[in-house]
Queue: 4 jobs
Job 1
Amino acid sequence: MTPEIRSSDLALAHRLEAAEAANALHLAQATTTFESEMVAGGCTLFAGLGSPATHALGCGLCGPVSSAEVDRLECFFFERGSDCLIDLCPMADMGLVAAVMERGYTLIEFNNVLVRPLCAADAALAAQDLNIESVTAATHREWLDVVARGFETPLELIENLPLYGQTLLVRDDRTLAVAAAGGSMVDGVTLLFGDATLPEARGRGLQGALIRERLARAAHVGCDLAMACVLPGSGSHRNYERAGFRLAYMRVNVKRARP
């Protein structure tokens, strides 16, 4: 029987946030240009000013968070010239939540954390009718270009992202790269991210195929849970729901400006 996903499941939130924090740490270890530190039970990651990878993840799920720990978290970013950026789980310790309210943090965006249980049968989900390939050092730049164009993000903000985890490209019949996706596996959880399709290739089911491909690969090596973070109501939100993902909880991404 497929386990039920419940938004009240604190143990599930702990597992997902721990996977996010561990993934951020592994990402930093994969390159010499990123910096990270474990703070307040989570991981702070600095990937450069303005980088979408620069933020704190998984904080406040491992016990009480003191004011001194919040000071340390903020100093990590401020000392590097960055605003303090936190992806805040709604089940984080109230000490962290109170600090966010008292210290004048502002809202950046909401993210839905979606979850899907995996079983051995999901290994058969791999797409058979598309040209999906694993990214290599030779095609890493193509992957970065598709992600930047798909998210309408300046390439210079993400060009230092390392080749890491499940990194996939889709090519059209002219062998042009038109869609990309990323992912990683931590303690039985596969994290799916970086889904990007070029505007001219949208509406063909490419993101859905990339979701299925990553789920199949994760199930093949024994992962039992998949997660993704999406903007509520977005195309990605709908595509992940079509793939069987359900809402676990909503994160609030907040920022405190550097003094």
Job 2
Amino acid sequence: MINIGVVGCGYWGPNLIRNFRSLTDCRVRTICDTNPQRLDYLRQIYPDVETTTDYSEVLKDKSIDAVALATPVHTHHDLAVESLKTGRHTFIEKPMATTSEQCKELIGLADERRLTLMVGHTFVYTAPVLKIKELIASGEIGEVMYISSRRLNLGLFQKDINVAWDLAPHDVSIILFILDQDPVSVNCQGKAHINPAIEDVTNMTINFPNGGIALVQSSWIDPRKIRETTIVGSKKMVVYDDNEPLEKLKIYDKCVEIPPHYDTYAEFHFSYHYGDMYAPYLKQIEPLKVECQQFIESINDGHISPSSGEEGLKVVQVLEAATRSLKNGGAEVKLAS
């Protein structure tokens, strides 16, 4: 039985509490938050769980094996360092930290102490994303030519990070997971409309070594909530709409067929293949529960999860490059190999 302390009980923390409590091989022992009123509310729901406003009290409790952090991004590094140094397996909500150097430090601490370090890239545990990865790996949709992701809504505005750091980690983690490739460079443009210091709209281009690209649009000021990813392959195309209640994934048997070599341009004609569209059946399981179970299993048997510290680092490296590109008018920023 793994005893866990959940730190941070604002927007996302209660979801972690609920899902960790649903697991048979895990027990939420302590809930920590700096807001006493928030703890009063959670005590009414979970009267058997201890609460504290002092993070050090969580770390002093020798019975706690692991810590889950759902706190503001700027606190992730320092809280995770303390957790790892006291021998706790550590789960960190996305993004992992504010710099890649901080991520590397956390990975090093976890490796030295043989501790599990995992990041909350929830979407890599969803049935649609796992199906997309399967379709790409099997070659069914052919070579991936480009991916386009849109994550738009009105709010929620953040005070310490821009919209790319807030929303794009979801899309970046999905793209890196399904392609199983490391990007080579990033371009990003954006604009701050509400708070002049924080971009609320960004457009990011992620470039891959085989010439493929991924386009990621993020916005806090769009009238509609959009959660859509399109994967265009040389044989088929896929649309993943997370707002759809049932048919989240649609596969289109459509493509552009390139003709063989011709001697003259006049003879050269593209043809277009139009086939059926189908929506595969996907078993709906709450991905956060799967993610929490993966964390516990990684602690118990040492296997590496799809959202390990290394994967968290890759996402932060893309976000760092996007930030540098933003400050340089959208110029291409190379990523270290």
Job 3
Amino acid sequence: MRYYEINAKLHAANCPPAEVARRLKCTRSAVSGVVRGTDKSKRIARFISKVTSTPVAVLWPGRYPELEAFPVRRAA
């Protein structure tokens, strides 16, 4: 999935990248890197997957094979 589609999903879930960074206590650039596919972070990828209710395998095909086996749960 392209980065702007992931950003759109995050905004639709009322959790833009800046909010993801606040909730996970990390930098916006770390979140941006994961969204764009230039950096890897299982923690950020898993959180984005939960917030958007979209499997990691759909968001970043083949990038996180170790996370693809886990079902997506809706974030609280």
Job 4
Amino acid sequence: MRNDRHGARVNCRETGSGETVVMLHSSASSGSQWRALMGTLRGRWHVVSPDLYGYGETDAWPGTRQFSLSQEAALIDAVLPSDGHPVHLVGHSYGGAVALRFAMQQPHRVRSLVLIEPVAFHLLWDTAPAEENRALFREVRTIASAVSRAATRGDYRSAMARFIDYWNGKGAWSRLQPPLQAELARRIPKIALDFWAAMTEASSAADYRGIGAPTLVLCGSRSPAPAQRIAEIVAASLSRSRLQTIEGAGHMLPLTHPEIVNAAIATHLFRCRSESHPAAA
């Protein structure tokens, strides 16, 4: 355990040696999501996989101020090595949005980025084509509102069922075993905060153009339309980015297509390690 600047206990998995790779998980998950990738990389990399606020064994957000992506990104400071060297950041879904925010705030500390369908929902509101993208934003807002309302009245299972089925396809919730359903349902209060942070973020696509780190953006061909569109916006906004679509994959592609995703991440990391580049444009 480590402590963040608010005094919250931050759980972090750590293995290997070499340049540091920090991996940020999706909502409703934990750092254990990256177990296979950590095993792949630990022979040549120092791999760090924290649990974000309210997940795994990390304390809940202490509530010292309004929650935001910036507040979640500050947790990364608690797990960075003390040598001050820039790190490679890998983030999936909500973790991708957090990684993007961290890279915008502290570009000098990021050597490279891998963003797997970052749910930076706010980018749908101020980018072209405006009408189409705002319709996608409203689609997400419908899900977020349903989750928030159900969480407020204590109907965690209903909220989690809506969340799981949206990201994984209709019927995904019903196929889960009851103990896992119960475990996931307990995470609804933090999922509601994650939605809030990703949808109310004030930064724009233009704000991310200062990120000069080479970036791989991964997207599933069968993911919900808002996630696919955000991946396109992010890839177009960053100066040194490349968008790769994984055919047949959905939003949970690190878990459903781990061999393809992990190979793409490893290739990107090795390529970046062999290059000399500025940390910021």
